[in-house]
Amino acid sequence: MADWNSDFEARLAEGSAGYLEEQAFLDLIDKYLEGGLWAEALLAVREALRQHPFSIELMCSHATALLEMDRAEDALEVLRHAAGMAPGESDVTFLQVETLIELGRVADAEHLLAPFLGKGNPEDLADAWYFQSLIEEQRDAWSTMHRCLEKAVRHNTRFPEALERLWLSTEMLGNYEESILFYREIIDQDPYSWQVWYNLGHAHACTEDYAQAAEAFEYACIIEDSYEHAWRDQGEMRLQLGQTGEAIECFLAALERSDDRDAELLTRLGEAWEKQGNRDNAFACFREVIEKNTAHDEAHYRLGGLYFLEGRLEEAVFHLEAAINHQNEREEYFVALAEVYFRQGFLAQAEMCLHRALELAPEQSGYWLQYASFLLQNGSLEEALDILDSAITQQRSPQLDYARIACLFRLGKRQEACQSLCLQLAEDYHAHQTMFDLAPELSSDPDVISLVRAFRIEG
What we know:
Elements: H1 5-14, H2 22-34, H3 38-51, H4 56-68, H5 72-85, H6 90-102, H7 106-113, H8 122-138, H9 142-155, H10 160-173, H11 176-189, H12 194-206, H13 210-223, H14 228-240, H15 244-257, H16 263-276, H17 279-292, H18 297-309, H19 313-326, H20 331-344, H21 347-360, H22 365-377, H23 381-394, H24 398-410, H25 414-427, H26 433-438, H27 446-458
Helix pairs in contact: 2-3, 2-4, 3-4, 4-5, 4-6, 5-6, 6-7, 6-8, 7-8, 8-9, 9-10, 10-12, 11-12, 12-13, 12-14, 13-14, 14-15, 15-16, 16-17, 17-18, 18-19, 18-20, 19-20, 20-21, 21-22, 22-23, 22-24, 23-24, 24-25, 25-27
């Protein structure tokens, strides 16, 4: 903004503004609109129209300010006047359409929009199909809305609002494979549209093709180096792929481009450092998160895990209990705390935590197995058998079946155990190590060894 800006604004507020060129007014009004200063924008536009009463652009700015102030009817009146002065002007018509949609008058909006859907320059066609998508959204016609947005992007491959809404509609419809084909087609048309690459990355991530997702996000970063979220999302994919070094580089790049040291981003960076084996850097990240937000449950959880690995059990308990106090619906928090309690010899507390984890995630066979293992180690054999029977009725898992067999052997029910072992070895031979993990003495039991060898030969 020019040097005259502050002086002019002061005079404008006093009602004594002098003459100003139309473009200078437009720049000033845009500044107000971008800053959310609606009243100031309205004051400036009124003075501008007093000096430039036939400016269609200023009339559009006037309508925009009124729309932002929830004065849609007043905006529509301004636009009617503008349309009378410039019939068929696309900017005026599109603002009228937007205002009518805001008022819920979709039939009127569609009538105005119809002539712009079949002809015009690419930018106008893109805008027209974008506004048609808003009309379809009002009707809850999600598939039609999606197709309209695709048409908008075909006409303008760098249309940020259309691309943002296109991804939202993709998530709503779940048509990820179809979207991948569409984005590939657009990239062939315009390989430097970073936002298309970014959307493509999300589509691949939703199909769990993390390598392709990482590559798409990488292209988005190359084209638009300053976009923090592309770096962050690429880091997530690298982490999924076990590429911890690359993930760290991406998260650090995202931090450099963020306005503040975002707690979620720091947590993900800390996790990457932890997976790389750099505990000092991981500790530093998680501690910084907690300094910024003492209620950040995941940072407490990860700090608790690090302290557990270092044998600092009291600190581990402190942070894991803090994680649970702030978020008591994450089963992995209870499992981690159970492990610490078990190491400390607090068996009742450990059992209580494992029981709560199973309440939260009964579908997780690993938790049932962990609970049964805990009971077996502490001699609660009948209780362990009951737990495994309950687990097996809810889901099929060969590991659970082998755990039950180990429990039967421990209880002295050899005939039932051997019969079950024969059936299970025939059904899933490769998971039998679970039985030896839970009951190591079976690895030297002649009956068990002969059965395992017999089925290995047959296999």
